[in-house]
Structures are given as structure tokens and as C-alpha cells.
Amino acid sequence: MLRTTPFHSRIAPLNLAQNWRRWSGYLAASAYEFHHNREYWAIRNSAAMIDVSPLYKYGIEGPDAERLLDRVVTRDVTKCELHQVFYTPWCDDDGKVMDDGTLTRLADDSFRLTSAEPNLRWLQDNALGMNVGIRDISDDLAALALQGPNARRILHDAADGAADDLRFFRLTKGEIGGVPVEITRTGYTGDLGYEIWTDPANAEALWDGLMEAGDKHRILPAGMLALDVARVEAGLILISVDYVPAHQAVIEGRKSSPFELGLGWTVKLGGNWFVGRDALIAEKERGPEWEFRGLDVSWDSLEALYGEVGLPPQLPSEGWRTSVPVYSGNTQVGYATSGCWSPLLKKYIALAHIQSQYAGIGTNLRVEVTVEHYRKKAAARVVETQFFNPERKRSNPSVADEVPA
Amino acid sequence: MSVSYDTVVIGAGHNGLVTAAYLARAGHKVLVLEQRDVVGGAASTEEVFPGFKVDTGAHRLGGLSSTVVNDLGLARHGLELIDSEATAFVPVLGGTPLTLWRDPRKTAEAIREISATDADAWVPFTELIGKAASFLEAAWTSTPPDVTGNDLGDLFATAKLGLKLRRLGKRDMVEVMRILPMSVYELLGEWFESDLVKGAIAASAVTGLCQGPMAGGTVYTLLHHHVGAGAGVIRPTRRVRGGVGRLADALVTACKQAGAEVRTGASVESILVEGDTAVGVLVDRAEIRAQRVVSSADPRRTFFELMEPSEMTPEFARKMGNIRYRGVCAKVHLALSGLPDFTCQPGAGDHLKGVISISPSLEYVERAFDAAKYGRISQRPYLEASIPSLSDASVAPDGKHLMSILFQYAPYSLRDGAWDDAASAKLGDLAVETLAEYAPNLASLIEARHVLTPLDLKRDFGLAEGNIYHGEMTLDQLLFMRPVPGASRYRAPVKGLYLCGAGTHPGGGVTGVPGFNAAREILKD
Asked: Chain A interface, mutation test: which of B300, B312, B315, B323, most A Cβ atoms within 10 Å?
């Protein structure tokens, strides 16, 4: 029996398509309309609200809270300031990624960690002998993502300006719809956006408050299908799709290090010891076997391949999550794990694991496409993973100066 | 001013001393640190009553390695072993008791009074046990393979072991492989009909186990206790003249002759780790630096009490934390004014020179275990009593006798109450009352009594949960899985830190083999 999120009374009537999926044991909307197109464009052109309550969340408190997290995650948690948020993966002893999420310092000795998979036991194992309390607060916290270029203005109206000056990956507190909330400038769309956290009892008031303030800013609820396209455009990895969590991998070859997932920037080898550090030092020295890259599939090539059978290029209408071979010439040198047609960029894009020697930016490779039941190879260029990375994601103009989108 | 050593060994138990002696002979500058004032650890002899030399821990040897004895010249340093002709006397409340003898033919004749079928089965049975134990013996002195890696040397060692097994002949090989994981109950059911014969053998399969003879894998422990026993010997009872602690004394002499230093009353507070390397120990808040640290303490004490858990990786810590200890043994020591007289076989015959085993049937032992399963002390316990003064007058004053009783099952974790003085006294009473059913004059002979509860075993000897073997000797905690898979080669995951105690392969009992194997591995690095 799937559980419903604290926003269910609001999202259920809006889900015209009755298009649901399972997310960590919760019912989550795949799309509210029969096609996710409008929801996607809301993320990119106005604002979208995405119920992300099914995330796993942990409250970590006590004198050793910082020490524990610094031991678990690859980033240097001692550098995480009050009300700062870190995106970070964490690894097993062999330096292979187990999960990734965000870590927020709520106080000197108090943090919140979000994750895609359950991590309570792993945290407890790491906390042996430490003076720290670890609580699974997944059910105690409703979470709503407000994403898109109009998000700041909506919050300005809904939260009385509380988040006007909130910087990228920081946290502030405020009130929306008459209930207290925490707002972080984070998200999974690569756009200007926020995630708003509150007690489940306040979820409906929060939803109503945002919908009311967002109405004139063309706010729309959005489901997972729209989010999936947005996150591929942003080059953000998805667990169990773009990588297999280390403790679930049945063979070594399925595991990935942070370096192999484009997360080398999160690995701070200079700080204190953390789980997997020794293996990662060694890997850094010899260089990772794989790189995680973007693939820009050539339109001309697609046109030519489909032209052979008398069709214009047939594009996927949703993001896909299958393993697709990538070739250099006729030799397979990698595999793409996620891809989509980017309606905004007008490009067929994919995220791929490429053997390091073929992963140089600009390298010409070929990616498998199935044209009328036959496997073909379309030309693709290796690019950075962030296909879309707008200035507004990080910038902080004053709300007054902002041009309405 | 701190002195620096090549090697610091934590604990002067027999395994720690064996490792220390071998390393010192190989040229290491070695320091052994013992928290107690006596050496020997859980194989110590102490004068708990004036004039009596009491084996406070182990009261007989396991398959003590003759290689160790010879290499270190222990006989020259005063070690004298005593093998009594009788190995075990199993008294009964009515009918004919049974004595097992070193000579299997003599035992068979003894059994003939009980069951002719069993008498005929006895010699072939001892031959099977002998063959199977000799296979185990080959595995004992080999460093277990690292199942987590692909080291060619390991494969070679494993292949050699396989070859040894193969040399038993195909039929015997299959038989050994078949019986190893069985329960001793099933094995004995295949061989014998007499409850008494089964009880006599089964008891030695469960020593130190929080399991009964009906548990799977107890055949392995039975064989473990028969390694090096000698052809045809069941329930080997080997003692040391003057007390088991004389073995440690001989080892100390060997250590000192090789240049090692042994310090008693020196309690290690922690193992010093810098970065990912052990660099010494802390004693009385003073640092003693060393190239390497070798711990003969059990895994829990080594990794959770002498180190910070955060100095281990979480996966290793989890595995270490999952080791089962569940001690079930207590010791009761009696200073006696004379010999107990057993109703079923009166008088002071040779039969009392082995151990006296209160295990009149296999079911009796299983029921004794039942109590432990529910966190209670067995009301009808399995007892292994030893009267060393019968074959070695030096351990008791003239005309007096000493009795050492291993009491099983007394679970470390009691469901009700705690191991306080009252519980300790009750356990002592229970041991005496149980024996007195068979030897009614016992109570009147007692001049003094000394009890070590499982909690005392922890406090006095540092044994986690009072487990006499540094971790239960169950199939999942043996061989390459001892103490845990991936760490069975005496090296801890911290550089420069090694294990050499009974918590490592091949496990518990006074054998010296873990210490011997550890020294060999340390010298390889």
C-alpha cells in the first residue's frame, strides 16, 4: 500500500491524468496533465511546484554531529557555514558512491541530510562511539520545490520578502500561508528555485499560500516527467538511473566513484579522513577509468538516419532511462543512462559514462538510435553535463530589478 | 623520555607470549604489557587459597602446538606436561559409570559393560575423529585464505589444504566433509546407542558455546578439541605440572632469553593511532611508541575499548560489532580436605585423574543449554571437574586436594537479575550440589570455595561477555571468518596493528597456534 504525502489532498484533485508513480513508498504525480509539456515549460518559463516530500531526511544533532557528517560525506563539512547547504555524495570504504543528497547546517551542532535511499543504518554505523543523535525525520517534514524564473517573485509575495536575498545553497526561515517554513535555495532543475520545508501539519497551508501568490506568476504543479527533462538539461545525476548505489551493486563493475560521476568537485581530499578517502586518493592519482559527460546528438545525423527510411527524426516525448551504447567508430566506449529531447535547447541530449580516453570535450562519438526497428549509430559530440545553466540559477538581483518572465 | 620498541604486545596470555617470543627471536625489540600482576591471561595459575595453585581460567590444555614447545625450548624452561591415562570419568546416579581412557581398546572394554554394539563402534569412531582432526590440524597452522582478494599465494595455500584433505582417501574425505557441519547429536546417533556414551563425547563439543549438542556445527568444535589429541584419544586431558600458568612462565623465560621485556601490572589504556597507522600504546597516560602493536586481547577489547570506533571504517566496525561472544562458562574452585567419593564407583582410582564430566546423557547437556537460551543459569548444569592434585601433588598442600570446575551453562547476560555476590554464591552452591548427587561426601570436604562468574571472567581476564574463546567458536566465526571475513590474516585494517589472540584463527583453547601464526605473518610484512 503506497502512502500519500502531506500535500495529497491538494495534488490529488489536480492530477487530471491520474498519472502516478511510486517514489520511496509514496504516491507521486508523474504528470498532472495528459502530457507533461506545460509543466516542463512552467519550470523553465514561469514557476512550478513539485512535491518532493518522499525524499529521505535525517536530523543529526549533538556535539559530534559535524564530526559524523565530515566522516561520512566527501565534502569538508567543517567548511559548511550556518544555514549553508552542501550538495554531496557519500561513499563506501572503496570510494564508490552510495547515495547523494543535500546537507544543511541548521545550527553549530545540528544538521539535516536528505537522501534518495534509506541511510539510517549507515549513519549509525559511522556514529559508533560518537556523541550524536540521528533521527529519521522523513515523515516529520513536508517538502515542496518551487522552481522556475518566477520563483523569487512568488516567494517575495508569499513569504513577505523573507527569501529575497537568499543566496544559492543557503537557508532562511519565514512564514508562508500563515505557517512557519524553512526555505533553501536548492532544487533539481538547474534553474532559479527553492525548496520549502515544513511540518506535515502545515503542508496544506503552505501549498495554498504558494498557489495564491503564484497565480499571477503562472505557477503550475509539475510532476516527475517534467522534472526528469529539466534535470537532464541541468546535468544532474539520478540514483539507480545514472549510477547504481554501491551497496546495491551485485558486481564491482556496477559501482561508480564520485570522479566517475562528474562529482570530483565534491571530493575534498585535503580535509579530515572520510569513508572512502584512501581509495579516492589512489584513484585520483591513477586517474578515473570513466568520465560522466553530456552527449549532444547531431540533428543532421538523426535527419540522415531517419531520412533513409523516409521519416523525419522521431524524438522521444519523455526523458528516457535506459542504457544506450556509445561508440567511437564501431568500438563501444561507453553508455548513456539518461536522455531526452530538450524542448528549450532544441537538442537531443543524453548523459553518458564514457571511458576516460574518449571523454575529452569535443570528441566525436556515436550513440545508438533505433530507427524503425533497426539499430543505427548517430553522431554525437562529447560536451559538459550542464546543457542548461542560466545565470539566474545563482544570481541575486533585487526583486524590484527583476524583469518578469 | 619514551623508549621506542619494534613491537609492543598487548597481553601476556599464552598467545601473546608465543608471538612475543618468536618476534624477539627474529630480532625484534619486544615489550609485552600485561594488565594483571600474573602472566598467563586466561591460562593462569593463582594462589586463590593459601597453598593451592589454582588454574583460574583454563584447567587443561588444548592441542598445544609441539612446534611451539620445541622451537621455544619450553621443556628446558620448565614446562612439563601431564597426560593422565583416564581422560574423562562420567558418573551416573544409578547403574554403571563410564571412564574414557587414552587407550581406545581399554575404553571399548569399559563400554562393553554398557553396550556391546557401542563397544565395537568405539575404535572405528576414534579413527574417524582422528582423521578428521588431523585435517583440521593442517588448517590450524595455515593462515586462512583471504576470500575477499585474489592473492595467488592464498590459492596455493588453499590448494595445499585441499590436497591434504584429498590424501585422506576419497571415502574419508567425503566423510569428513559430510560430518563437519553436522550436530554432534546427529553424528553420535549414527554411531552409538548408549545415552551415557553419547553424553560422554557430546559434552566436549559444546565447551564455551552458547549452543547445545543438537546445534549444527558442533562436530566442528568437537574436532577442534581433538586436534593433537593423539591416536584414539577422546576428550584429551592434558595438564601442566604446577598449574597451567607454568606454561606462561616458561614462555616468559623464552621471551626474556630472546631479549623481550615482559611488564606486568601495566594496563594498556589505548592503542595510539596516527593517521591510519598504529604507532604505540598508552600506559598510565604515558606513550610507548613502537613500529607495530600486536594485540592478544579479543576483538571487542582491541577495536572498541582500546581504539576509537571512528578509527575503523564503518563496514569493518559493523562486522566487528556483529561478532557473537555470549559467554556461558563459570568457574568454581574448591579447596578440599580429601577426595570426593563417587557412589557409582567408590574410591580413589585412576578414573578420577582425567576430568569428571557431569553429562550422563546427550539430552542432559542439551537441557542444560536450554536454560541459557532463556537467559537463565542451568539448574542441572553440565560440569567438567578436574582434580589436578591427584596427578600433581605440587598444586595442593600435603593430603589436601584441589578441584576446579568448569560450569556450563551460566549465561553472561541474565534475563533476571545480575551477576552479583548472591548470584555468584548460588552458582557455587549449584555446582557443589550437582556434584554431591554423585559424590555425597563432597560438601563435607570443602575448606574454601572460589567462584568466577562470567562477569568475573570479563573483569579479571578482559574476556568480552566472559567468552573464554574470544568469540564463539561457531562455524560462521571460524577459519577465514575469524574474527571476521577479510581480517582473518592477523592484520587489522589499521597499519601496524596485528591480532594474535584466540579471536583469530584457529581460535580458542590453550594451543599457542594463533600466536604462532600471527608471528609468522608479522615477520612476512
From this structure: B315
pLDDT at B488: 84
pLDDT in tens, A323-334: 999 999 999 999
Q: Which of B275, B308, B314 sits opposite A125 (nearest CB)?
A: B314
Q: What CATH number was assigned to the domain covering residues A8-53+141-222?
A: 3.30.1360.120
> Closest residue of B to A127, CA-based?
B310
- CA–CA min distance A242, chain B (Å): 25
Cα separation, B491 vs B154, in Å, equals: 15
Q: What's the gap in Å between the CA of B310 and the closest CA on chain A?
A: 7
Identify the pLDDT of residue B166: 76
Domains A57-138 and A276-383 share a fold: no
Q: Which of A125, A130, A275 to probe the B interface (max B CBs under 10 A)? A: A125
B310 contacts in chain A (CB < 8 Å): 67, 71, 126, 128-130
Domain ranges of chain A: 8-53+141-222, 57-138, 276-383
Residue A94 at interface with chain B, using a CB cutoff of 8 Å: no
The C-alpha of A68 sits at a distance from chain B's nearest C-alpha, in angstroms, of 9
Minimum CA–CA partner of A273 in chain B: B275
Domain boundaries, chain B: 4-43+58-80+243-323+470-524, 105-230, 325-461
Mean per-residue pLDDT, A362-380: 97
Q: What are phi and psi of B262, to 5 degrees?
A: -120, 120
Where chain B has pLDDT below 70, the residues are 1-3, 148-157
Interval A11-36: pLDDT, tens: 999 999 999 999 999 999 999 999 99
Residue A262's Cα: distance from chain center in Å?
A: 13
Nearest-CB residue to B314 (from A67, A126, A278): A126
CATH architecture of B4-43+58-80+243-323+470-524: 3-Layer(bba) Sandwich (3.50)
User: What DSSP letter does each residue of A31-93 carry, written as one string?
Assistant: ESSSSTHHHHHHHHHSEEEEE-TTSEEEEEESTTHHHHHHHHBSS-GGG--TTBEEEEEEE-T
User: Residue A313: left if φ>0, alpha if ψ -120 to 50, beta else—which one?
Assistant: beta
Chain A residues with CB-CB distance to B486 below 8 A: none
Contact between B214 and B366 (Cβ < 8 Å): yes
Report the pLDDT value the prediction gives residue A119, as an integer from 0 to 100: 97
For residue A340, what is its C-alpha cell?
531526452
Topology, domain A276-383: Elongation Factor Tu (Ef-tu); domain 3 (2.40.30)
Q: Directed axis angle between helix B14-25 and helix B245-257, to 10°?
A: 20
- Strand boundaries in B252-308, DSSP class E: 261-263, 268-274, 277-283, 286-295
Asked if the model's pLDDT at residue A295 lies above 90, the reply is: yes
The residue in chain A having the minimum alpha-carbon distance to the alpha carbon of residue B322 is A125
Q: Tell me, yes or no, if A122 comes closer than 8 A to chain B by beta carbon.
A: yes
Residue A128 has its nearest CB partner, among B275, B276, B309, at B309
Closest Cβ opposite residue A93 in set B275, B304, B315:
B315
Report CB contact under 8 Å: B308, A122.
no
* Mean predicted confidence (pLDDT) in A361-381: 98
Q: What is the ipTM of this complex?
A: 0.71
CA angle A88, A152, A27 (to 5 degrees): 60
Residue A243 has pLDDT above 90, yes or no: yes
Q: Which CATH architecture has domain B325-461?
A: 2-Layer Sandwich (3.30)
Element (H, E) at B285: none
Q: Which residues of B touch A (CB under 8 A)?
A: 275-276, 304, 308-310, 313-318, 321
To the nearest whole Å, the CA of A237 is away from the closest chain B CA by 26
Topology of the domain covering A57-138: Alpha-Beta Plaits (3.30.70)
Who contacts A36 (Cβ-Cβ below 8 Å, separation ≥6)?
A30, A222, A223, A225, A226, A229, A318
pLDDT for B418-467, tens place per residue?
999 999 999 999 999 999 999 999 999 999 999 999 999 999 999 999 99
